[in-house]
Design a protein that fits this description.
- This protein is α/β, with parallel strands linked by helices and about 240 residues long.
- It folds into two domains: about 10-20 and about 70-115 and about 135-240, Alpha/beta knot (3-Layer(aba) Sandwich), CATH 3.40.1280; about 25-60, no CATH class.
- It is about 35% helix and about 20% strand.
- It has nine helices and eight strands.
- The chain has helices at about 30-40, 50-60, 70-80, 85-90, 115-130, 145-155, 200, 215-230, 235-240, and strands at about 10-20, 90-100, 100-105, 130, 140-145, 155-165, 185-190, 205-210.
- It has an eight-stranded mixed β-sheet, with helices on both faces.
- Helix 1 packs antiparallel against helix 2 and helix 3 runs parallel beside helix 8.
- The radius of gyration is 18 Å and the shape is globular.
Length: about 240
């Protein structure tokens, strides 16, 4: 469980932006692959997550179909983030923003299932109900564009990570950040391409950390680790 925050503790807010996490769109819900998968799952076609590994034959009719239907990226990124020492210290907040401007807010104490099929079931329930588990929700879903999410967080500094950004070394990302600052890091939750949201307008800085495009889980782990190093989180933990 994350430790209790002390007054004055700074937070890293991690947003997986424009994530390719969505229910099957109505325009392809009648495709035989979708109907077969929904029947096997005991759900309506529009109540299951779009998954390119299963629904590939049906997705060619969708705009941006080559990058959509990737719940695995969100699953992997969140597992890594929730297990990070920074989250165990209570200093990390995670959000998932989707291409359709849905926003998932996670409680730091959330423990996601490691099995992908169980994660899919959890996300489907969340999309259908808006909160899960029902008795004491740890995940909440609402309609909110990226700009609204940032307005709510009100970070001192917002940094987006993109291969189109200004090159910077990992150790320099948080240079000048103090324990009085709350930082928001925006990482793309999609397999390739660029942000759909206007991150250039919303960010104080757009950073490129490698000459080659990196996968989202790699960026997430390094974004968190660089923050831990900048604030001496790991040193403090080792002295306990």
């Amino acid at each position: 469980m994350p430790r209790q925050l002390d007054s004055g503790d700074c937070l890293l807010h991690l947003i997986l932006a424009d994530s390719e996490l969505e229910l099957v769109p109505r325009e392809i819900a009648s495709h035989r692959v979708i109907r077969w998968n929904a029947h096997r799952r005991g759900r309506r076609p529009t109540e299951i997550l779009l998954d390119s590994s299963v629904h590939y034959p049906a997705m060619r009719k969708l705009p941006d179909w080559t990058r959509r239907g990737r719940p695995d990226i969100v699953h992997f990124c969140l597992l890594l983030a929730l297990d990070a020492p920074l989250n165990r210290e209570g200093l990390l907040r995670e959000y998932v923003h989707t291409r359709h401007d849905k926003l998932i807010t996670l409680d730091p104490a959330t423990r996601l299932p490691h099995a992908f099929n169980r994660f899919v079931g959890l996300m489907e329930h969340l999309f259908l109900t808006g909160a899960t588990p029902p008795d004491k929700p740890l995940l909440r879903l609402e309609d909110a564009p990226l700009a609204d999410a940032l307005a709510r967080i009100k970070p001192t500094r917002t940094i987006s990570f993109s291969h189109l950004g200004r090159r910077k070394r990992w150790k320099d990302i948080y240079r000048g950040i103090s324990r009085d600052d709350d930082v928001c890091a925006i990482v793309g939750g999609f397999p390739h391409g660029s942000f759909i949201s206007d991150v250039e307008e919303l960010s104080d800085e757009i950073i490129c950390v490698d000459p080659e495009p990196l996968h989202a889980p790699t960026v997430v782990t390094r974004v968190i680790f660089a923050y831990e190093e900048a604030l001496g989180i790991m040193e403090a933990r080792q002295k306990r």
